[in-house]
Write a structure and sequence with these properties.
197 residues; mainly beta; five-stranded antiparallel beta sheet; 1 helix; 37% strand; elongated
Length: 197
């Protein structure tokens, strides 16, 4: 009796396992039809996405004193298995009492880590949704950043905030493609002090 129950369970489990493998693996077995129309990294609508998330590595400023002109740098690493090139980054200051105003015309990008000064990456466009409120910047890389690379963007500010504190900047990455879905990577923190440390 025990053997019969085990055999029935084993047969039922094996059938389910083979059916699941057919579904996951996309193979056709008699009685199983599965059509996969979307490729990896792309939704059926054509919208592109990263298979594996880029990572915000660091945020830094050249000067940390209040009311001092400074350059803010944000470094992002694209993993080898990202599944798509990095086309653009959008950097937006989180709601604060004092807005940090970026000078978009002085923005630049390079391969490598913060202040290392690797090979420059040309920018196709630099902009933001609210030109009058320039605490938001979108940078489009030309050519896009390939998986396995690290890129740093430098944004010049007119001056650091007048009040010391921690200022947060949201970073969103966009994969290559016209209809790409942005992925929020997190907040870069920039510290500003009354007397530079």
């Amino acid at each position: 009796m025990f053997r019969k129950i085990v055999h029935q369970f084993s047969h039922s489990f094996t059938s389910r396992l083979v059916g699941a493998a057919a579904l996951v693996g996309g193979i056709a077995l008699p009685g199983v039809v599965l059509v996969l129309s979307a490729s990896a990294g792309q939704l059926p609508s054509g919208q592109r996405f990263f298979d594996r998330s880029p990572r915000l590595v660091s945020a830094a400023s050249s000067f940390q004193s209040v009311n001092t002109p400074s350059t803010y740098q944000f470094t992002v690493t694209l993993p080898e298995d990202a599944g798509a090139n990095l086309q653009a980054l959008r950097i937006v200051q989180d709601q604060e009492t004092y807005n940090v105003h970026f000078n978009p015309n002085q923005s630049r990008a390079f391969l490598g880590n913060t202040y290392a000064g690797g090979p420059e990456v040309p920018l196709a466009t630099i902009g933001g949704e609210m030109p009058a409120d320039s605490n938001e910047v979108t940078l489009v890389f030309d050519p896009p950043i390939a998986p396995g690379q690290t890129v740093t963007v430098s944004l010049e500010t007119n001056r650091n905030p007048r009040d010391e504190g921690v200022y947060l900047f949201g970073v969103t990455a966009f994969p290559e493609g016209e209809n790409s879905r942005g992925l929020f990577l997190g907040y870069g923190r920039v510290n500003v002090y009354e007397n530079s440390r």
